[in-house]
Design brief:
Strand content: over 45%
Radius of gyration: 13 Å
Number of helices: 0
Helix content: under 10%
Number of strands: 11
Distance between the termini: 40 Å
Largest sheet: 7 strands, mixed
Shape: globular
């Protein structure tokens, strides 16, 4: 089992920045990929970004060039730096962990709310 705890959400004006953090604990050796998903009101949960233990990254098209995912393997932390935020980025952001690329999330955090005002 892997436990994931997010922090760093909040309210920000359009054009602003936020940094999300996710602390992983438990059997972290069993997961290679960590990342972030989000779910806006009335919409399906969607991928934001993922990063492998070898720091290979993948981004959803809407956030490319604005968001940066990173991880600290020694601290079992993953981060999401979000710049140039837009109202459409408003969502609950979930930290995820999965065994390998292509298998889909196996573990989910409880989520942190990000609200971008116009």
């Amino acid at each position: 089992q892997v436990q994931l705890v997010e922090s760093g959400g909040g309210l920000v004006q359009a054009g602003g920045s936020l940094r999300l953090s996710c602390a992983a604990s438990g059997s972290t050796f069993s997961v290679n990929v960590m990342g972030w998903y989000r779910q806006a009101p009335g919409k399906q949960r969607e991928l934001v970004a993922t990063i492998t233990s070898g720091v290979s990254t993948n981004y959803a098209v809407p956030v490319k060039g604005r968001f940066t995912i990173s991880r600290d393997n020694a601290k079992n932390m993953v981060y999401l730096q979000m710049n140039s935020l837009r109202p459409e980025d408003t969502a609950v952001y979930y930290c995820i962990a999965q065994r390998w690329v292509g298998l889909g999330p196996l573990y989910w955090g409880q989520g942190t709310q990000v609200t971008v005002s116009s």
